[in-house]
Design goal:
By secondary structure, chain A is an alpha/beta fold. Helices cover 46% and strands 14% of the residues of chain A. Chain B is mainly α. In chain B, 53% of the residues are buried. Classes of the chains: A alpha/beta, B mainly alpha, C mainly alpha.
Chain lengths: 452, 298, 313
């Protein structure tokens, strides 16, 4: 505490003084750093929600774009996926601080007040940069058009898949001559497959992982199988619930049976399902974004769309799409550059497909480079059998619909509610949601929801 | 308060004396049992941290291997190098530092002035304002997050450093603590200085502040820890990963990469270790700081 | 130590303060202190009072996140909140969490403090071990326990040889959050208890020992009564903090409300309504309800404290 203490104290005081000064300087600069960037040429501000593997792909594609278009300066910001992203985009558009270009999920576009928070695309400009309606899957394009105007430019389709391990399935005799899983067309066939796969599975591992306790995944799976049964949600005017509780019960019983028959261990009801798969579990239902994860674990695996157990083929699909957030003075060079950038990325989607997504731009799909991608080429057909959420304002990725109905699906799958009771609850929740006013414009789905 | 501080100083001295005596005392059976018990409990407390460390030294595939095991079979620093190469972790570290340092500096200066003002000066409406501050004790971003957010949004401070810093700079609790402390300083000291012709501000800076160093240190340490570890507010007010602080970045960005436990653990240790290391060196100050701040609520 | 030395320096000055006319100057010295509190009040008004008033105003409107086109709708939001099952459910979850955490933390912190206080060797080491988790950010603690509770690869099930689905079974999910919270925050209350234990005058124990009281009697008749005050403080602080639980729960559940919504806390619900459903008006209304609850708890504590003090005297 004596002499050395004094010295130490002086040093500490000096250091902390410097830190405080530096911190304030930094904080002051931080707000203005954006303004310091170059303003010489056309500048496109672009917000996206791609982190992780997707993020690297996007950055690489942006770099390629910059190299090809030296006159355009792209200022990209990666924001966090999920509700906060949409909140921020909505606020920026409402406050007229919107970026020139943004990314969002296609299912969210309807609820995002097209016309008020989003600006329409200029078809002429898009055509100039080589993007035409004919190059897209018609289903996808239809979802991007609202009241006859194009509000979103689809980038990709991402789907729920049934991943399988070839090594385990081979032992169980479930692999065809082409090295792919044998086709399944009914509920009984599916459970037979599971039964045989179970016998070939190492002890202590579950047969299939299906996120049984996750409200998002269970909702997506429900949407897929409910669509396979031909189920509907609302009438076209958005005034009446047409949800079929019998079909829903059938789907819920199907999901539940995986647990009661012992193919799903409720102990691995979350993300641990993928870990079980890496350890040698034969099946897991996951989004196609798991492709890079399983690739890096060097597994011998394949992936098909969710099995068409109810006859009709359908698997849950969502899409990333480019949007033009509302700017009161949209137009000019920045707007044109935004069109050019979006068109460029949509057309050069081969690299994007490495993240597991199916490119929305169909010419990419027929290239040899894409056909060589495995397992991407195995599930590319999923884009023709999309099961999507209804086109209402409360739907879409992590939207209110999924938040309210997802937990009900989980309660049935996990066994805390009977499937028929859960189906009835889903119906009444849908009725409530339909009567709810969209907080952005104060209108219900029927009043403002006659979109399409 | 100063009397309380003094008794604590005295007891600390007394404790040191007794422990000094204790080292010379032989191991009694009860001491052996207690020490073993303490060691066992400590092991339980430290085990999660050790588990995190070992996980971070495995490869991602080994981390999720079944059955699980404590020590890595192949020691690798791949997760650690990955978070430095690919993540924004250094960015987040700097952001955390900037935010915490600014918050602490502002809280200390503003809080000391206000605490002194409330304790020692007279002005119109003081009673009312003091009551208002007491109300403020019950407001936090957790309680009034949405209105606070829209306020900051109106000011155009969403996704800025100031948006993260300033709302953390009005902690009624710290003002209240300092207020009670200043009340405990004998008035005569200041009165004497006034008579000698010193101004209010000089008295504050030359007499009051030096006297209150321990209390200021306590409040400063507590504020720094709270701000460094704050998650909710930065989470609400930032979306841009370049601006995120450590706790926010770890929880939101790293989590979204999928199952990469080794990297997640490495990142978590990076976020947690600085304070723990600081704690090892400044243990006495931090312990008295936290205890003092907490006890002031009595 | 600084305090004592400063006092000895000042003491002679004080001796010189006999002058009679000094009163006037003295009074002047203490006046016009408004400037001292002004900077704080400015920040306080902007970031505490204004949001509070604004929240109150918004709670009577149908405001959305974009901030335009709001209209006054009277008490509709409050009426809806009382009928909203999720309000009651999430409030129940926060209360359940509080009910589990507060007694556990109080007892655990007391036991740890007794242990650390009575072991004669290596005091700093015990203090470090028990307090260190508190220095971690909440999100790191939550990630850590998410990993420990992870089925298949997690250590908890492995060590105890069980197969509990901690994070995905709705009857265990909240318990998992509680366990994480205990480990993470007990250190703070532990320090408070330790400081209080060290503040108990040693002569009390010596006197009791002379009277022939054994260790148990000394604890029941000296330690516990002397710690009553601090126990009240620990409980009050924990109740207020636990009701506002948010971080651990959302991070452990990957930012979802847990299996079948079983860990959706009240704070989480207000944020969902405000930022996912864009219903700022409604979110403000339930925030105001929450503020009233928190304020009621805080006022109840102050009232109890005053009563006890008056009764004690």
């Amino acid at each position: 505490m004596g002499r050395p203490g004094l010295n130490r104290r002086q040093i500490l005081a000096g250091l902390s003084g410097l830190t405080v000064a530096g911190s304030f300087g930094f904080a002051a600069l931080g707000t203005g750093a954006d303004a310091l960037a170059s303003g010489a040429d056309t500048r496109v501000r672009y917000w996206n929600l791609f982190s992780g593997g997707d993020g690297y792909n996007m950055i690489a594609m942006l770099d390629a774009f910059r190299a090809a278009n030296p006159g355009i300066d792209v200022k990209d910001s990666t924001l966090q996926w999920g509700s906060p992203f949409y909140t921020k985009l909505a606020m920026a558009a409402a406050g007229n601080r919107a970026p020139d270009l943004g990314v969002m999920h296609l299912g969210r576009v309807t609820g995002f007040s097209p016309g008020r928070l989003l600006d329409p695309w200029d078809a002429g400009l898009l055509a100039k940069y080589g993007v035409r309606e004919a190059d897209f899957n018609p289903e996808l394009w239809k979802r991007a058009v609202i009241d006859g105007t194009l509000y979103a430019l689809p980038l990709d389709i991402h789907v729920q898949l049934c991943f399988y391990r070839k090594d385990v399935l081979k032992k169980a005799g479930l692999l065809g001559d082409d090295g792919r899983m044998v086709p399944v067309t009914s509920v009984d066939e599916w459970f037979d497959v599971l039964k045989e796969a179970k016998q070939a599975t190492r002890k202590g591992l579950q047969t299939i992982g299906m996120w049984s306790a996750d409200q998002n995944f269970q909702w997506w799976f429900f949407v897929a199988f409910y669509t396979q049964l031909g189920g509907t949600w609302f009438d076209d005017a958005g005034a009446e619930v047409t949800f079929d509780t019998d079909k829903a019960t059938q789907v819920l019983e199907f999901l539940r049976r995986h647990i009661t028959d012992g193919y799903v261990d409720p102990g691995f009801a979350g993300g641990a399902g993928a870990e079980q798969f890496v350890n040698g579990g034969p099946f897991v239902w996951e989004g196609n974004w798991s492709v890079p994860v399983f690739d890096s674990a060097k597994l011998d695996y394949g992936a098909t769309p969710l099995p068409p157990v109810f006859g009709k083929r359908a698997t849950h699909a969502e899409s990333h799409a480019f949007v033009l957030p509302h700017q009161s003075d949209r137009g000019g060079a920045a707007n044109e550059a935004a069109h050019r950038l979006a068109a460029y990325i949509v057309r050069h989607a081969r690299q994007w497909a490495g993240g597991g997504h199916i490119p929305a731009y169909t010419p990419t799909l027929s290239t040899d480079a894409y056909k060589k991608l495995n397992p991407q080429s195995e599930y590319v057909s999923a884009m023709d059998h999309q099961a999507t959420e209804p086109k209402v304002w409360f739907a879409g990725s992590t939207g209110i619909l999924a938040q309210r109905v997802g937990p009900i699906v989980v309660s049935s799958t996990m066994g805390s509610a009977r499937p028929d009771a859960a189906a009835r609850r889903m119906r009444s929740t849908l009725t409530e949601l339909l009567a709810m006013k969209n907080p952005m414009d104060g209108r219900t789905a029927a009043q403002g929801g006659a979109v399409a | 308060m100063s009397t309380a501080a003094q008794t604590r100083v005295n007891t600390r001295k007394a404790a040191r004396r007794t422990s000094g005596r204790a080292t010379r005392r032989p191991w009694t059976p009860s001491q052996i049992v207690l020490t073993l018990l303490g060691a066992a409990v400590s092991a339980v407390f430290l085990a999660p941290l050790a588990w995190a460390l070992f996980t971070s030294l495995k490869s991602e595939t080994e981390a999720v291997e079944v059955p699980t095991h404590w020590l890595p079979k192949d020691w690798t620093t791949q997760a650690w190098s990955a978070i430095f190469e690919t993540g924004n972790i250094t960015n987040w570290f700097v952001n955390s530092l900037v935010v915490s340092v600014c918050v602490t500096a502002v809280v200390l200066s503003v809080g000391a002035l206000a605490g002194y003002g409330f304790a020692r000066t007279e002005f119109r409406g003081k009673g009312f304002l003091l009551g208002l501050v007491m109300t403020g004790l019950m407001v936090s971003p957790a309680v009034l997050g949405v209105p606070l957010f829209t306020t900051v949004q109106q000011m155009g401070m969403v996704d800025t450093y100031w948006g993260m810093i300033l709302p953390q700079c009005a902690p009624a609790a710290m003002v209240y603590i300092l207020y009670k402390f200043f009340q405990g300083i004998p008035r005569e000291l200041e009165e004497a200085a006034f008579i000698d012709g010193a101004g209010r501000w000089r008295v504050f800076f030359t007499i009051v502040l030096p006297l209150s160093r321990p209390s200021l240190a306590a409040v400063g340490i507590f504020t720094f820890i709270a701000s460094w570890n704050n998650f909710l507010w930065p989470y609400m007010v930032t979306n841009n990963p370049d601006l995120m602080t450590m706790p926010n970045g770890i929880a939101t960005v790293m989590n979204s990469y999928g199952i990469q436990w080794a990297q997640l653990m490495a990142g978590g240790l990076m976020a947690g270790l600085p304070l723990i290391v600081v704690f090892v060196f400044f243990q006495r100050q931090i312990v008295t700081g936290v205890a003092h701040t907490g006890l002031a609520g009595q | 130590m600084t305090a004592t030395s400063a006092q000895t320096v000042i003491a002679p000055t004080r001796a010189r303060t006999a002058a009679a006319g000094a009163t006037v100057r003295r009074k002047q010295g203490f006046q016009h202190g408004g400037w001292f509190v002004a900077p704080f009040l400015a920040l306080f008004a902007l970031f505490v009072i204004w949001p509070l008033l604004r929240g109150l105003y918004l709670s009577f409107t149908d405001a959305n996140i974009s901030g335009d086109a709001t209209s006054f709708i009277g008490l509709d939001n409050y009426r809806e909140a009382l009928d909203d099952p999720l309000v009651w459910e999430s409030l129940g979850h926060s209360a359940y969490f509080t009910l589990l955490v507060v007694p556990c933390i109080t007892v655990l912190a007391f036991l740890l403090a007794m242990l650390a206080h009575h072991i004669e060797r290596g005091k700093w080491l015990w203090r470090l071990c028990f307090f260190a988790p508190f220095l971690l950010p909440s999100t790191v603690a939550a990630n850590l326990w998410q990993w420990l509770f992870n089925p298949g690869t997690g250590m908890i099930n492995h060590v105890f040889g069980i197969e509990t689905a901690w994070l995905t079974d709705k009857s265990y999910a909240m318990l998992a959050v509680v366990v994480c919270t205990l480990w993470w925050t007990v250190g703070f209350s532990f320090l408070l208890y330790l400081a209080a234990l060290q503040g108990i005058p040693a002569h009390l124990y010596e006197a009791a020992r002379l009277d022939g009281a054994n260790a148990w009697h000394r604890m029941v008749h000296i330690t516990l009564p002397m710690l009553r005050h601090i126990t009240g403080l620990v409980i009050a602080l924990q109740i207020l903090a636990s009701l506002q639980v948010f971080d651990q729960a959302v991070v452990m559940m990957d930012f979802l409300p847990g299996p079948e919504g079983s860990t959706r806390t009240f704070v989480q619900y207000t944020l969902e309504e405000g930022f996912t459903s864009y219903r700022v008006g409604y979110a403000s209304a339930i925030s105001i309800i929450f503020f009233v609850i928190i304020a009621a708890v805080a006022l109840a504590r102050m009232w109890l404290l005053r009563n006890r003090e008056e009764g004690g005297r």
